Amino acid sequence: MSRHRDVVRLLSEARPAQLDRGPSIDLATITAFPQDAPARKTNTRRLVLAAGLVPTAAAAAAVTVMIAQNPATPAPRPTVSQRPASTDKPATAQQFLLVAAEQVAAGEATTGRYWTVTTEHGETRQVGPKAGPYDIVLKMTAERWTASSPKDKSWEFYQSLGAAPATTADKEAWERDGSPAQWTEPAPKGMKPVVIAAAGGPRRLRTPGGMGPRDYLLGGQPISPAALSALPDDPAALKAYLVNRHKDTGGLEGRNDYLFNSADALVLELPVTPGVRAAAYKLIAGLKGITTLDTVTDQHGRKGVAVAYTRRGDAGTRSQTRLIIDPRTGHALAEESWYLGARDKLMSYSLLVSAAWSDDAPPAK
């Protein structure tokens, strides 16, 4: 079970009450950049990840068929050891992960009033007529303020960034479909269909549901702040703990899949100590089937090394989860899910914009 929230459900919650099908619109209108909002000062004790959001030339070219957005205000990089960026492929995934573990272990363990995480999620959906279907990419941002104390309330804000054709070929198919401004996905009997809008929506407040207000998600299951802070920083002990949690799920997900997804969450966005984050990297290094890819860029154009975990489905299809890591700091940048075939296809992604402890009060909206 993935730890990520249901992107389509949140997007449907974010859509306006009335979405009448309007006239065809030009893609340039969909991808127009909104005005930048004034930067808000945040008192952060330690930044886990600083997102350099200036896209590369390749990413800039891709923006013609993707929803544009405001880049987040970059924050200072963490004070951990940095190595010169290298374009060489690491000798092995295990060696690269052990170096990353060494880098993050040198970080300082801190805390604060709120653990704040800002992420961007994207998902590829097939829409259009049966005779000429095409792919679109839905995007949304989520900003969560999780309180350390039960005296404070946790908050979550989200915003639909809209949807647009995924590739140039998809854009051409979209134009043949009449350049629709929205798409409707059928729903099971008794449920409302999901309307996907090309235009983005307003920023909204959502109360975290399905778990305690101060809980986090690890391996698709809620975990309390106390349990999270008590995680062992020894790789073998951490693996044993996660194996026991996997048994509690009934084994609906393969054990290696569960271990990879759980360790992925620990290095990407959960507020754990540097020692636990290092142990999670070492745990991933010990899993079978882990490989590295050449230097890649995430969906914000940030360069990193992708550690790939590939699995084969019952029908022989292959899928791959890629954890993109900054080789200079050892910090994780993003997770991407790919379908592998004659033409590899990005199915979804979760990109970390920032994660930090803060003593500030959450924004009003």
UniProtKB/TrEMBL annotation:
Annotated keywords: Membrane, Transmembrane, Transmembrane helix
Protein name: CU044_5270 family protein
Keyword Transmembrane part of the UniProt annotation: yes
NCBIfam families the record matches: CU044_5270_fam
Transmembrane segments: 47-68
